[in-house]
């Protein structure tokens, strides 16, 4: 099939994806639904076989009924110019065979997860009475998200009659062939279970159990040789997991799982610690298993002829059997009496035997749901009379932890059994620890087995070491072994190391103070340094200070002039505090409602006044702020002035953008 050929006017062929024993597979694009699909075309050498074509079409149509996330969907079945084709879902990824080679060794839990997906899909097929007959890793696709999807439900049946003869095309299939199929018998649902067991074997060991030079030699091993032990390959594999392989690949179909659901249920609990001491699975073989046997007709006729020869002479004339001598009448009487006594004894023994209690072994229902456990116990003529619950970290909630009597114990039929179900892990209730000491809160939770972590956060209002927030909401019930509670704890006011401000300009110092939430006050001195450059600071550089600390910086006025004379003096100004109406109402509401310290602090911050002071003298002008203060009450400040003799200075005090105090005629003698 060439690229760009459009099949049935709808499916445009893009490229080949591979060739199989019965069909060639192509990637195509559905021009109507605008999606990529896989197209399987029946091989040329099979297109002249009416039976193969009929089965291909019939089973392809049957596969369209299988809707399951782990089955490759069949969208369309058709024919064009004698070409039989199936249109299927395109799975981008690789087949399980390639996946095993690429990822081996595969973790046991991942093996179980993949197998459970495959078993779920096969169960749906079996529920629709569709038997795959050719389950193998090459027919299981793994998409990019790790989802397994089974394909070739419609092709496997048509292949069944050719699987051993087309050695060049379907040789891979014989590695997963059940013994009954290898003998030429009809495949059943249990044949699929055998193939699933071989697939599980390969996922655990990375190889198939039987190899040979020809397909026939491999097929013979399937019904003659025992499956090699996966634990011989990897002793770490739990015995319970190997038992799944052994039971699924039993030679006799009746020794395998009754259905794929039973296999899935057994596989699900195979890694459970409760099955760690499970014995190795051994099929229940007997020399005479009660099956009806067909006698050889020739042997039977030979036996009859020999019997007749005993009743004729050498000339073929029948010889009359010698008559038995009549026994004495008394002897016959004694024989009858002895027979009667023996009959009475036999009857007594039989009555005792029939009346004796019957015993059964309590089945292991660990890990099952209550309903499933009751069903399994009922099948053994046992009754559940009581159900209790117990916390368990190993057994999932709602599943059986144990039975009383214990599993495998021999008890009389119709006995009562008590089930203990898991309530899941024991949960604890988280309290509200906000506002409490971190040390106390952490001790309480750690005593209950909870992992506690701490993260610090600075705060101007919350006491150091106090819990400010918690990651788990109060009242939540948690599993202490799997949950971590993180507390946000107050570290007090933020501290910082004071930078070296000497040599910085006034604007640079103000920018630094604003960024680090510091207050700054400036002094001025004549100095050789350039005007407005800092000559000293207090506290000194490198000191550890907290947010809100006031630092005093001395700025240079430049070299001291000889003329004119400069008058230096200070003016004291009282700045009134003004409480806003909103702050007042908020404050009264807070006090009346007994609010927390957080809200009180917030109210205090909201009622503060931010005040800017502007000076006009020898060193300042109204274009820049001389000083900014945050006040919560009436505050008195001292303003330094340097004014040429005979001239005046001035000041303006601004609050919320409005000038509240000003004086433009400040002299040395006016204050």
Descriptive key words:
671 residues, alpha+beta, Trypsin Inhibitor V, Chain A, 4-stranded antiparallel beta sheet, 17 helices, membrane, serine/threonine-protein kinase, Ser/Thr_kinase_AS, transmembrane, non-specific serine/threonine protein kinase
In short:
With 671 residues, this protein is of the alpha+beta class.
Question: Can you tell me about this structure?
Answer:
This protein has 671 residues and is α+β, with helices and mostly antiparallel strands. Among the domains are: 64 residues, Trypsin Inhibitor V, Chain A, CATH 3.30.10; 58 residues, Trypsin Inhibitor V, Chain A; 68 residues, Trypsin Inhibitor V, Chain A; 107 residues, Immunoglobulin-like (Sandwich). Helices cover 29% and strands 26% of the residues. It has 17 helices and 30 strands. The strands form ten sheets. Strands 1-2-3-4-6-5 form a six-stranded antiparallel sheet, with helices on one face. Strands 27-26-29-30 form a four-stranded antiparallel sheet, with no helix packed on it. Strand 29 and strand 30 form a beta hairpin. The longest helix has 27 residues. Its EC number is 2.7.11.1. Keywords: ATP-binding, Kinase, Membrane, Nucleotide-binding, Serine/threonine-protein kinase, Transferase, Transmembrane, Transmembrane helix. It is an enzyme of class 2 (transferase). This is non-specific serine/threonine protein kinase.
């Amino acid at each position: 099939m060439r690229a760009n050929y459009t099949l049935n006017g709808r499916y445009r062929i893009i490229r080949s994806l591979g060739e199989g024993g019965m069909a060639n597979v192509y990637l195509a694009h559905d021009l109507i639904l605008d999606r990529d699909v896989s197209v399987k075309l029946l091989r040329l050498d099979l297109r002249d076989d009416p039976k193969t074509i009929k089965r291909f079409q019939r089973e392809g149509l049957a596969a369209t009924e299988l809707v399951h996330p782990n089955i490759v969907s069949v969208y369309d079945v058709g024919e064009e110019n004698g070409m039989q084709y199936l249109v299927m879902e395109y799975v981008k990824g690789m087949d399980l065979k390639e996946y095993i080679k690429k990822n081996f060794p595969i973790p046991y839990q991942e093996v179980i997860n993949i197998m459970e997906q495959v078993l779920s899909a096969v169960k749906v097929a079996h529920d629709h009475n569709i038997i795959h007959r050719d389950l193998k890793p090459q027919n299981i696709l793994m998409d990019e998200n790790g989802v397994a999807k089974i394909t070739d439900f419609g092709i496997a049946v048509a292949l069944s009659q050719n699987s051993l003869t087309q050695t060049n095309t379907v040789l891979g299939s014989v590695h997963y062939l059940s013994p009954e199929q290898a003998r030429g018998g009809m495949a059943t649902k249990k044949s699929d279970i055998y193939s699933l067991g071989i697939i599980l074997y390969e996922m655990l060991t990375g190889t198939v159990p039987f190899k040979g030079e020809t397909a026939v030699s491999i097929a013979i091993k399937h019904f003659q040789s025992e499956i090699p032990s996966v634990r011989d390959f990897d002793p770490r594999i739990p015995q319970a997991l190997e038992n799944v392989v052994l039971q699924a690949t039993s030679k006799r179909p009746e020794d395998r799982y009754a259905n794929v659901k039973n296999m899935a249920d057994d596989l699900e609990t195979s890694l459970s610690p409760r099955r760690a001491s499970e014995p190795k699975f051994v099929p229940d073989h007997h020399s005479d298993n009660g099956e009806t046997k067909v006698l050889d007709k020739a042997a039977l006729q030979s036996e009859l002829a020999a019997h007749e020869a005993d009743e004729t002479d050498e000339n073929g004339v029948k010889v009359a059997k010698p008559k038995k001598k009549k026994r004495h009448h008394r002897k016959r009487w004694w024989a009858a009496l002895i027979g009667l006594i023996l009959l009475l004894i036999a009857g007594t023994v039989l009555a005792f035997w029939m009346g004796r209690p019957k015993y059964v072994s309590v089945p292991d229902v660990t890990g099952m749901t209550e309903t499933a456990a009751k069903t399994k116990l009922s099948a053994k003529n046992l009754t559940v009379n009581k159900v209790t619950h117990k916390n368990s970290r190993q057994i999932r909630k709602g599943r059986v932890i144990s039975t009383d009597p214990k599993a495998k114990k021999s008890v009389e039929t119709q006995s009562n059994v008590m089930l203990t179900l898991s309530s899941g892990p024991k949960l604890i209730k988280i309290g509200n620890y906000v506002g409490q000491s971190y040390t106390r809160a952490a001790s309480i939770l750690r005593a209950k087995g909870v992992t506690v972590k701490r993260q610090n956060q600075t705060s101007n209002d919350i006491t150091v070491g106090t819990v400010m927030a918690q990651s788990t909401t109060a009242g939540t019930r948690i599993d202490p072994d799997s949950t971590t509670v993180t507390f946000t704890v107050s570290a007090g006011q933020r501290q910082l190391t004071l930078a070296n401000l000497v040599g910085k300009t006034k604007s640079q110092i103000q920018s630094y103070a604003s960024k680090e939430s510091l207050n700054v006050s400036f002094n001025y001195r004549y100095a050789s340094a350039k005007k407005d450059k800092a000559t000293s600071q207090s506290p000194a550089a490198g000191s550890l200070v907290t947010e809100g600390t006031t630092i005093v910086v001395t700025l240079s006025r430049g070299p001291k002039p000889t003329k004119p004379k400069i008058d230096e003096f200070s003016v004291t100004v009282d700045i009134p505090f003004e409480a806003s109406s909103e702050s007042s109402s908020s404050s009264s509401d807070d006090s009346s409602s007994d609010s927390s310290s957080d809200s009180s602090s917030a109210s205090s911050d909201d009622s503060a006044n931010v005040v800017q002071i502007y000076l006009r003298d020898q060193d300042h002008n109204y274009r820049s702020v001389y000083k900014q203060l945050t006040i919560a009450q009436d505050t008195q400040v001292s303003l330094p002035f340097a004014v040429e003799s005979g001239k005046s200075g001035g000041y303006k005090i601004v609050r919320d953008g409005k000038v509240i105090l000003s004086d433009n005629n400040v002299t040395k003698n006016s204050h």
